[in-house]
Write a structure and sequence with these properties.
The termini are far apart. The protein has an 8-stranded mixed β-sheet with strand order 3-2-1-4-7-6-8-5, with helices on both faces. By secondary structure, the chain is an alpha/beta fold. It is globular, with a radius of gyration of 21 Å. The protein is built from 11 helices and 8 strands.
C-alpha cells in the first residue's frame, strides 16, 4: 500500500489541481491520501473536503513537522511526499512502485516540469534542468526533494523523519537526504518520476525564494559540514560564482576608500562572468527566448543567494554567542 502525504499551508489556489492529479493515477496498487493542513487560514480545508482524503489540521510549524505528522498516521509501506502546488503525471505511482521493487534502492527523487510561459519561470526550470543533468551522472545521490519523493517507510521511521528545526520550506528534505546517504541508504534520481509545478512568476517572488534557500543553507551546512564542498545536486561552478561575486562587491565597496580597488572589482567580476558562462549557455540552449534576460536573471539569483548566505551566517553566529552568554550567566 502507498501512503501519499501532502503538507499544505494556505493552498486554496492549487490544492484542488494537486489532489485531482493524485486521484487520476494509473495504478492497481491501493493508496491512501493524507493531507496535513499546517495552519491554513484560507479555503484550503473546504476544498480538501471534496476529496476522499484523511485530513489533519495542526498549528503552523512548517512542512517538516507537517510531514512528520502525516508519517505518524501513514499505513502504507511506501511513502510518497508531494508538495501541494505539484501535479504528478498519471504514471507517477506506477513508476515509483516499479523502481522501489529493487532491493538496492531506498528512496527516489522526482523531477519538475512546468507549463508556464513567464520568462522568470522558464529560467527557474532551466536551472533545475541544469542540476538534473548533473544528478543523472551519479548512480546514487544525496539530494531528494520532497516536492516529488518516494521512500520506504521503514527508512523514515529508522531515521525519525524530518528535522523540525527547519520551520519553513527551507532544506529540511535535503538535511534528511544527507543523513540517509551518510547512514548507507541508497537514493536515486528518476527522470520518469515527473510532477508539474508553478515556479515563481515574478522577479520579486524568485528573489525571495532564492534568498531563503541561501539563508537556510547555512543551518544545513552547520549540520553536515562535509557537504559544503560537494553534493550531487549543486553545480560546483555555483560556489565559485558566489565567491567571485562576493569578492567583486567587497572590492567595489573598498574602491570608495581606495580607488585602486576598483581594478580588483573589475577583475573579480570578469572571473564571475567566466565561471557563470556554462550555465548561461545552458539556459540559451534550453530556451532561446531567454536570450536577452539570462545574464540579468543569473545575477539576480546569485545576489539573492549571497544575501541569504550572509544573513544566515550572521544569524547563526549571533545565536552561538547568545548561547555562550546564557551559559556564562
Amino acid at each position: 500500500m502507498i501512503s501519499v502525504i501532502i503538507p499544505v499551508f494556505n493552498g486554496d489556489h492549487y490544492i484542488s489541481d494537486c489532489l485531482s492529479a493524485v486521484f487520476n493515477q494509473q495504478t492497481k496498487e491501493s493508496y491512501e491520501v493524507i493531507v496535513v493542513d499546517d495552519g491554513s487560514t484560507d479555503r484550503t480545508a473546504k476544498i480538501v473536503g471534496h476529496f476522499p482524503v484523511r485530513y489533519y489540521y495542526k498549528k503552523n510549524g512548517g512542512p517538516a513537522s507537517a510531514r512528520n505528522l502525516g508519517l505518524q498516521h501513514a499505513r502504507g509501506e511506501i511513502i510518497v511526499f508531494l508538495d501541494a502546488d505539484c501535479q504528478p503525471i498519471p504514471t507517477f505511482f506506477e513508476v515509483a512502485i516499479k523502481n522501489l521493487a529493487r532491493k538496492d534502492i531506498d528512496a527516489l527523487k522526482g523531477f519538475y516540469r512546468t507549463k508556464q510561459t513567464e520568462p522568470i519561470a522558464l529560467f527557474a526550470q532551466a536551472e533545475y534542468e541544469y542540476k538534473y543533468r548533473r544528478l543523472l551522472r551519479f548512480p546514487t545521490i544525496d539530494f531528494v526533494d520532497t516536492y516529488a519523493a518516494v521512500y520506504r517507510k521503514e527508512v523514515l521511521i529508522n531515521e525519525h523523519g524530518f528535522d523540525e528545526l527547519f520551520s519553513m520550506a527551507s532544506g529540511e528534505d535535503i538535511e534528511l537526504s544527507y543523513r540517509l546517504q551518510s547512514h548507507g541508504y541508497k537514493l536515486k534520481a528518476l527522470p520518469d518520476l515527473i510532477v508539474y509545478h508553478s515556479h515563481p512568476d515574478t522577479l520579486l517572488k524568485y528573489f525571495r525564494r532564492k534568498y531563503w534557500v541561501g539563508f537556510w543553507r547555512v543551518w544545513l551546512y552547520s549540520k553536515h559540514p562535509s557537504k559544503m564542498s560537494r553534493d550531487s545536486h549543486t553545480p560546483p561552478g555555483l560556489k565559485y560564482e558566489l565567491g567571485a561575486l562576493l569578492l567583486s562587491l567587497v572590492a567595489l565597496l573598498s574602491g570608495l576608500i581606495i580607488p585602486v580597488s576598483l581594478f580588483g572589482c573589475l577583475g573579480f567580476f570578469l572571473i564571475y562572468c567566466l565561471v557563470s558562462t556554462p550555465f548561461y549557455l545552458h539556459c540559451l540552449r534550453f530556451n532561446p527566448t531567454l536570450r536577452n534576460r539570462v545574464a540579468r536573471y543569473i545575477l539576480l539569483r546569485d545576489i539573492a543567494l549571497l544575501l541569504g548566505y550572509l544573513t544566515g551566517c550572521l544569524r547563526w553566529i549571533t545565536q552561538i554567542f547568545q548561547k555562550k552568554a546564557r551559559k556564562v550567566h
